[in-house]
Amino acid sequence: MRYRTPFLFLLVAAIWGSTFPAVRAGVEVVPPVLFAALRFDAVAILVLGYAAVRGYRIRPRRNEWAGILAGGVLLIALHHALLFAGQQYVTSAVAAVVVATVPIITAALSRLLLPTTDLGIVGVIGLGLGFLGTAIVANPDPAALYTAESLGVLLVLGAAIAFAYGAVVIQRTRTSLPVASLQGWMMVVGAPILHVASISLGEPQSVEWTPAAALAFVYLVPIAGGLGYLLYFDLLDRLGSVELNLVSYLLPVFAALVGWIALGEALESTTVAGFVVVAIGFALVKRRALARLVDGRTRGASRVTGDDDQR
Predict the structure, then answer these.
(1) What is the pTM of this model?
(2) Mean per-residue pLDDT for 130-146?
(3) Could you give the CA distance from residue 227 to residue 220 in angstroms, rounded to a whole number?
(4) How far is 212 from 210, CA to CA, in rounded Å?
(5) Cα 86 from Cα 98, distance rounded (Å)
(6) Coiled-coil intervals in this record (predicted)?
């Protein structure tokens, strides 16, 4: 039992890190926004079903719809439309590293929108490192800035900003609605928006599924969407949001590994360097939360082992 939580933590990282290669394989065949819409059609049912089985409150109250609508538009629709579109042009590892800037951008937006949040000079430096890491990953060529890969990085960065903004808005409107119910209703809102966006963009609505695309879809729905969220909700109760957010920094590792094995994607040195810079930026921005986390674990270990100062 002692190793269950670390094992589940790694399992969530492996499952969600592998979604990047799965999306990459899917959007080679299925139009990206339509692919995202179809995914959340199914995952919404799974997540709300999980909430119902666990006996959580399902029905939102009137004051909870603002957060649901904001999350549906920003976290589900806009984030995934941009992410899936961007993954047409970049490798799985690059997309995962750029998405890893979400906690950093969230902290910056919180400073702007939530008066009680203060980044400080060190936090501003961390924010700058987050964007610097993204620039290193993009590795722009001054002679050819408008490449497909540069477009892909910009789209994924836009997805990260949309998610971060949505997270801050939800933080301002957070109520007692259980996380699973909130996530499920956001998907119910976001999926139709993705369908409308897909049609508006002129994407073909009839798709000839290849075995690779079908396998990717199956992985993204019951495994990443069903099992992944189930494990996430379990770990959220065990660890809390600060520690669980660290999973974001394992996603690029699994994305790179699975992308290399399954899709033959190469891992560029700039991607690794950018990831290191982003991780340092995260540590600076979240330094207080990480310090509290380490202190809490140290105190817990002291109580268990019976150190002298606890006797």
Answers:
(1) 0.84
(2) 68
(3) 10
(4) 5
(5) 11
(6) none
Inter-residue contact 275 to 97 (CB < 8 Å):
yes
State the pLDDT at residue 57: 94
State the Cα–Cα distance between residues 17 and 91, nearest whole angstrom.
12
- CA torsion, points 258, 262, 263, 269, in degrees to nearest 10? 30
Longest dimension (CA), the chain: 70
CA distance 102 to 110: 12
CA triple 68-71-75, angle to 5 deg: 160
Question: How far from 127 is each of 75, 171, 285, CA to CA, in Å?
Answer: 21, 20, 7
- In our burial notation (b when 16+ CB lie closer than 10 A, e otherwise), range 93-120 reads bbbbbbbbbbbbbbbbbbbeeeeebebe
How many whole angstroms separate alpha carbon 302 and alpha carbon 306? 6
Question: In Å, what is the CA distance from 192 to each residue of 77, 136, 156, 220?
Answer: 9, 36, 21, 18
Q: Distance (Å, rounded) from C-alpha 267 to C-alpha 155?
A: 20
pLDDT tens readout for residues 3-27: 677 888 889 889 999 999 999 999 9
* C-alpha–C-alpha distance, residues 252 and 18, integer Å: 9
| Boundaries of every domain in the chain | 4-301
Structure tokens at 30: 């299925």
